[in-house]
Design a protein that fits this description.
The chain is of the alpha/beta class and about 525 residues long. It is about 30% helix and about 20% strand. A hairpin with a 2-residue loop joins strand 22 and strand 23. The longest helix is centred in the middle third of the chain and has 16 residues. The chain is globular, with a radius of gyration of 23 Å.
Length: about 525
């Protein structure tokens, strides 16, 4: 079926095209006849267009007007600006469900890794209104959003400190153990629930549970908050309670709790960084989750393609008499700060005096150990699972947070390499070099599967992760033969290559591989306040 539009788009025909596209859930090709005036604001010409929802994988041209895709055509299109995508892949922009770097600098680095939407969902923020107001006032290069941070609500209740927004508040209280290991009374739980509900009312995208940072909290409290999520029709995002290869209180037990709570409450449960939480027990944890899914439990998962994690050195998982044994015999020298391994004395000092210090912890070595690669693969390649970065902020060599308007990224800047190279690394290793997943399926893991986690509670996400008429114009043009990560543990401040064009809300943020700092097209991804379910 071919629709022809002459001159400007005919409103009635365009409406019918959208109707039939929605009705049949399929791609309808569009031909736009030539006219004296350009029909589109931006045209991406002759690229290999991959739409993960419809299965389209063919040469097409894409016409964009304002912030929407208005044509996907087998014919040449006319536009004010033309991008020649010959030999390149044209994909929906990547969606990161686990982006702690909610600042301009971090977002710019992620844009050069193909990300057009970066959401803080594992941790989240509180107050939610403050998070969105700050981001709106400052502007963002890519789309942004956050869940409601349960941990911050708990800190506020247990310490009397009023929260100030995001993860900086959370990390600054990591050395205070009272909120991490004490049960909440019924009255305290009610007040925590009230704070979280307020965040949901202000547009929070779900509830973020950093449960592994407060493992001594009550099961009933966690259950009550998941009931709240189900009542509001929003997903939950959980960092499992335990990180251990040894029972009891093993990682497997932590995943069992999540499965049980999801099954009992009906809340949609998203498992954060399945790879790092599983340690070397991924065979058991992935089987558990897969079987729960097959039995109707609402579970989704994410993973990142690295063998090392990153967090604050004072986290509960690195405390206690047997924590090193429980993490598989890890050594304190397996922890690095700014790329340098820690000594035992330095580890102890930082944990006592500066517990919020961000470190990188090396748990698997997939580059040199095939067995570790197999362990990682079970999480990264989990069917229907998303790729998410768990990336964070960028720091100067002295450990001070870099000003967010810094650009270009200084080569001396420090973070986990996943903050810069997660998506290029996945495409390079898993698609091009190892050929263990097809490019269309890989793109689905970067776009469609993350979008589906939020589509029921945030209907606007149904317009993302697609190259279809009527979809949001968030698009990445990349060269599959050259796309690569450059960030390393020693020198993480190296942006990815191969992402030649990145379009956000119809605006060209990256042109010919160069980021345009003069544009801030990012928009809030925010839940509209809905009537809670009965």
């Amino acid at each position: 079926m071919i629709y022809e539009f002459r001159g400007s788009v005919n409103t009635l025909r365009y409406a019918l095209l959208l109707f039939y596209s929605a009705l049949f859930g399929c791609y309808l090709p569009v031909t736009v006849a030539h006219s004296s005036e350009p029909v589109f604001d931006l045209v991406i010409q002759n690229g290999r267009v991959i739409d993960p929802e419809t299965g389209l994988d063919a040469l097409r041209s894409v016409g964009i007007r304002a912030d929407r895709i208005e044509a996907v055509s087998t014919e040449r299109l006319e536009g004010k600006t033309i991008i020649d995508a010959t030999g390149k892949v044209v994909s929906p922009g990547f969606i990161d469900l686990h982006a702690h770097g909610q600042r301009i600098l971090a977002a710019r680095v992620q844009a050069l890794d193909g990300v057009t939407t970066a959401l803080e969902l594992e941790g989240g923020a509180l107050p939610i209104s403050l998070f969105y107001d700050r981001a709106s006032e400052e502007g963002r290069p890519i789309h942004y959003g956050a869940s409601v941070n349960w941990g911050i609500a708990r800190i506020a209740e247990k310490t009397g400190k009023e929260p100030t927004g995001g993860m900086d508040f959370f990390f600054s209280n990591m050395g205070i153990l009272s909120w991490q290991h004490n049960l909440a009374s019924d009255e305290e739980t009610a007040r925590i629930v009230e704070r979280v509900q307020q965040g949901l009312d202000e547009g929070g995208l779900g509830i973020g549970f950093l449960l592994g940072y407060a493992p001594g909290t009550g099961r009933k409290e966690y259950y009550a908050l998941n009931e709240l999520a189900a009542h509001n029709g929003v997903p939950t995002f959980t960092h499992a309670r335990y990180l251990s290869a040894i029972e009891p209180q093993s990682s497997f037990e932590g995943f069992q709790e999540m499965v049980a709570v999801a099954a009992a409450t009906g809340a949609e449960m998203h498992v954060c960084h399945l790879n790092s939480m599983s340690l070397r027990d991924s065979a058991a944890t992935t089987e558990l989750i897969g079987r729960a899914q097959s039995n109707g439990v609402k579970l989704s998962v994410e993973a990142y393609p690295y063998g090392a994690g990153s967090t604050g050195i004072g986290a509960a998982m690195f405390r206690g008499a047997t924590w090193q044994e429980r993490l598989g015999g890890i050594r304190k020298s397996d922890f690095t700060r700014r790329g340098v391994p820690l000594t035992d004395d330095e580890f102890d000092r930082l944990q006592d005096e500066e517990p919020g210090t961000v470190i990188v912890v090396h748990m698997l070595d997939p580059d040199d150990n095939p067995k570790d690669q197999e362990v990682l693969d079970r999480s990264v390649l989990f069917p229907g699972g998303s790729i998410a970065s768990d990336g964070g902020m960028w720091f100067a060599r002295n450990g001070i947070l870099l000003p967010q308007d810094t650009w270009p990224l200084p080569i001396s800047a420090k973070s986990h390499p996943r903050s810069a190279g997660t998506y290029a690394r996945f495409l390079r290793i898993y698609v091009r070099e190892r050929e263990v997943i097809s490019l269309p399926e890989a793109i689905a893991k970067l776009t469609l599967y993350p979008a589906r986690v939020l589509e029921e509670s945030v209907p606007h996400m149904r317009l993302k992760a697609r190259i279809q008429v009527g979809a949001d114009a968030d698009i990445v043009v990349f060269d599959p033969t050259t796309v690569s990560d450059r960030a390393t543990y020693e020198t993480p401040a190296q942006t990815s290559v191969g992402f030649e064009h990145v379009v956000v809300a119809g605006a060209q943020l990256v042109k010919d591989g160069v980021l345009d700092t003069s544009v801030m097209p990012g928009r809030p991804i925010r839940r509209e306040t809905l009537t809670p379910k009965d």
